[in-house]
Amino acid sequence: MNSCLILYRGPLQRSRLTLIISSYCMSYDTVDFVWLLPHAKYFDDVVFGDFMKKFEVNSSKVISGRISNILKTRIYLKEIINEREYKKVALVGTTSRFFYFKNSKEKVDWFINGVPEERLIHDNSPTNKLRVRAFWYFTNLFKEVDQVVAVSSYMAEYLRNKVNANGFYFVPSGIYHLESKLNVDRGLKMVYSGSGAPWQWIKRLSLLWRMIHEKEPDVEFLVISRDKRCVLLKEGIDPKNIQFKQAENGEDVFLYMQEGVLGFLIREENIVNHVSFPIKFGEYLAAGLNVIVSDFNWSCADFIKKNGGGLLVDNDDIQGSVNRIIEFYKGLDKKSELKAIGLSKSLRFDNSQQQLIQIIRANF
Q1: 62 vs 9, 37, 199, 259, 262, CA distance in Å?
Q2: How many CA atoms lie within 13 A of 272 on its CB side?
Q3: DSSP 3-state assignment of 144?
Q4: Nearest 5 degrees, angle CA 66-CA 81-CA 102?
Q5: Residue 241 buriedness (CB in 10 A; 0-12 / 13-18 / 19+)
Q6: Pick from 193, 287, 299, 180: which is nearest to 244 by CA?
Q7: Which residues contact 316 (CB under 8 A, 6 or more apart)?
Q8: Integer Cα distance of 97 and 119 in angstroms
Q9: Would the N or C end of the chain have less CB density within 10 A of its end CB?
Q10: Is the dihedral of CA 242, 247, 252, 253 positive or negative?
Q11: Spatial separation of the C-alpha atoms in residues 125 and 121, rounded to whole Å
Q12: Where are the alpha helices (DSSP H) in 85-201?
C-alpha cells in the first residue's frame, strides 16, 4: 500500500495546506498528517478540527514543534516513520526540514512557502542577518531531498542555489471561484485587502492613496482587513471617502471586494517580494478588479505584462504613478471587469491541484 506522511511546521496556513493535503490524498492510498506546532498561540482545537474534516486522512496529530524540543520530536518522528514504512514524506514549511532526518527508503518532497529573509523585513539587525546565513548553511548540511516545491518560478530559481535537491518545481496556491456570488451592481472603489505586515508596504500605499485623493477628492477607498496596522491608510483622506471592513471568511472578502474596480498590490523590491506570488492577486481578479502592481521582477508583474488585467507602476516615480493610476481608473468599465474575471480562471485552485498531483505522481 502506498502511504505518505505530511509533516507541517508553521501557523495554520489553510490555503496552502488545502492544496498540499488534498493533492497527496488523491495520490496515495493513505495519508497521515502531523502538525509540528511552533507555539501554542497558533493552536485552536475547533479551527484545526474543522479544517482537517475536509480531508480523508488516515490520522492527524499535533505535536511540539518548538526548537527547544527538537531532539525529542525527531526521535518520536523516527519511530512513526519506521513503524509505518512510508513511501513518501512531505515536509511542509521552510523550517520543517530541521525536524526530519531522511531515511534511505522513503522519498522526500519539501514545500518551501517562504524564505527566511522575511525576518529581515521585521528586523534587519546583524543578529538576524547571521540567523539567515546560518539557516542556509545548516540546510545544506543535510542530505538532498528528492523534490522542492515553491510558490513561484522566481522562488524555485532562487532555491536552486540554496538547497540540495534533485528537482525544483513551483505551484501557486490557487484561488476558489465563487461565480454564484458575483454582484452585477458593482461599486467604483479603490480597494486594499490584506494585513498590515511590513512586506505589504502599507506606508507607500497610504501615500499613493493620499495623493490620489488630493487630485480626485470624489474617489472612494475600501480597506478589507482585521489588522489594526492598516488604519494608516486613512491618513490624509476625508473620513467619508474611506471605509474599513472586517471579513469573517473568504466569501466575505470576495463580496466586499466587489464594491471596487481597482485592487492594489504595492510591494517594495526585495528578495521576499521577488519570490512571492500572493493569493490576493488572483482574488482581486476573480472579483472583477483590475490590479495595480509594482513593476519589478516578480510573478504578479509578469502576469500583467503577459495577460493584462491591471497596471504596472514604477516604485521610484510616485507622482507619475498617481497620474497613471487615475487615468487607468477612469478608463475601467464592464468590459475590464469581465476580462479580469476571465483571466483569474487560469489561477484556479483545481489547476494548481492538477499541477501538484502530476509532480507528486512523477516521483512515486
Answers
A1: 10, 7, 30, 40, 41
A2: 15
A3: coil
A4: 75
A5: middle
A6: 193
A7: none
A8: 18
A9: N
A10: positive
A11: 10
A12: 118-122, 126-139, 153-160
The whole-angstrom separation of Cα 163 and Cα 158 is 9
User: Which grid cell is 314?
Assistant: 514604477
**Residue 184 confidence (pLDDT):** 55
State residue 75 phi and psi, 5-degree precision.
-60, -45
Gap between the terminal Cα atoms of the chain: 12
Assigned C-alpha cell, 364: 512515486
Give the 3-state secondary structure of residue 257: helix
Structure letter (DSSP) for residue 226: S
DSSP character string of 312-349:
EE-TT-HHHHHHHHHHHHHT--HHHHHHHHHHHGGGBH
Assigned C-alpha cell, 204: 507607500
Strands (E), the chain: 3-9, 30-37, 59-64, 88-92, 107-111, 145-150, 165-170, 189-193, 221-224, 242-245, 260-265, 290-294, 310-313
- Residue with the three cell numbers 507555539: 39
Cβ atoms of 22 and 355 closer than 8 Å? no
Q: What is the pLDDT of residue 177?
A: 76
Question: Mean pLDDT, consecutive 10-residue segments, the chain of 364 residues?
Answer: 93 94 97 96 93 96 94 91 90 93 85 93 90 88 87 97 93 84 76 94 97 97 96 97 92 92 97 96 95 98 98 97 98 93 94 96 84
Q: Could you give the dihedral angle defined by the CA atoms of residues 290, 293, 295 and 297, in that order, rounded to the nearest 10 degrees?
A: -100
Supply 235's cell numbers: 491618513
Q: How many residues does the chain have?
A: 364
Q: Which of 287, 291, 303 is nearest to 338 (CA)?
A: 287
Predicted TM-score (pTM) above 0.90: yes
CB-count burial class (<10 Å; 0-12, 13-18, 19+) for 273: buried
Query: Coil, helix or strand for 289?
Result: coil
Cell matching residue 283: 482574488
